[in-house]
């Protein structure tokens, strides 16, 4: 039996889709949650000076999306053909683009407060509806799933990232998107993920 060790901060963000996938797969894994104060001691030991990293039987994997795709393959969460795998990659990249736009505003330490508020207002009125409408239209064709007409690793990635983006925006981004709410709800009712969410440590989210 393989051994898994995930190293990331005690924070959802880029580590949480991996935690969701490992929990879905029903495998035991070491959830190595590092503190910000210890990061400088660990940074130099990672391949790119960043986390998350996943160790599987001692082999190091890095970069969130490739790790998720790798675990999707192990846990039978890929598409059935090349087109379906493209569709999964497409929605994952769309989610990632939105997440990065929100992060640029949420973690902006240089702009004055009034400028940040203007940027947050623009996110709420333009960027977030634009990206989520695209995903809503895709999900409307897929019977409660996001990318294809069955559960895929893209659904788990989406649910984990929505929680993170909700926190950054201090609200429910899915309020007006019924099909995306179904996708999110279906993921959160999966036994392994539901159990993980109930037991996970309280994150340090600032």
Give me a quick take on this structure.
Residues 2-79 form the GST N-terminal domain. With 206 residues, the chain is of the alpha+beta class.
Beta content comes to 5-15%
Number of strands: 4
Report on the biggest sheet.
4 strands, mixed
How many structural domains does the protein architecture include?
2
Query: How many individual helices?
Result: 8
**Could you say what the CATH topology of the largest domain is called?**
Glutathione S-transferase Yfyf (Class Pi), Chain A, domain 2
Percent of residues in helices comes to 55-70%
Please give the alpha-carbon distance between the first and last residues: 37 Å
Corresponding CATH architecture of the largest domain: Up-down Bundle
The order of strands across the largest sheet is 2-1-3-4
Blueprint of the fold:
Elements: E1 4-9, H1 16-25, E2 29-34, H2 39-42, E3 53-56, E4 59-62, H3 64-74, H4 82-106, H5 113-139, H6 153-169, H7 178-188, H8 191-199
Parallel strand pairs: 1-2
Antiparallel strand pairs: 1-3, 3-4
Question: What are the salient characteristics of this protein?
Answer:
single chain, 206 residues, alpha+beta, Glutaredoxin, Glutathione S-transferase Yfyf (Class Pi), Chain A, domain 2, 4-stranded mixed beta sheet
């Amino acid at each position: 039996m393989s051994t898994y060790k995930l190293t990331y901060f005690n924070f959802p963000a880029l580590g949480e889709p991996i935690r969701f996938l490992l929990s879905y797969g029903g495998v035991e894994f070491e959830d190595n949650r590092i503190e910000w104060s210890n990061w400088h001691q660990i940074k130099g030991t990672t391949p790119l000076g960043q986390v998350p990293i996943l160790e599987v039987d001692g082999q190091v994997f890095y970069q969130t999306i490739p790790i998720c795709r790798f675990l999707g393959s192990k846990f039978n969460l890929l598409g059935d053909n090349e087109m379906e795998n493209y569709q999964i990659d497409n929605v994952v990249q769309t989610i990632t683009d939105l997440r990065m736009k929100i992060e640029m505003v949420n973690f902006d330490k240089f702009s004055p407060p009034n400028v940040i508020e203007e940027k947050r207002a623009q996110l709420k009125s333009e960027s977030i509806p634009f990206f989520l409408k695209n995903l809503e239209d895709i999900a409307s064709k897929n019977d409660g799933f996001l990318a294809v007409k069955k559960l895929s690793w893209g659904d788990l990635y989406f649910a984990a990232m929505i929680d993170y983006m909700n926190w950054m925006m201090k609200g429910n981004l899915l309020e007006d998107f019924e099909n995306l709410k179904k996708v999110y709800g279906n993921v959160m009712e999966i036994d392994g993920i539901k159990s993980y969410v109930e037991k996970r440590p309280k994150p340090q989210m600032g």
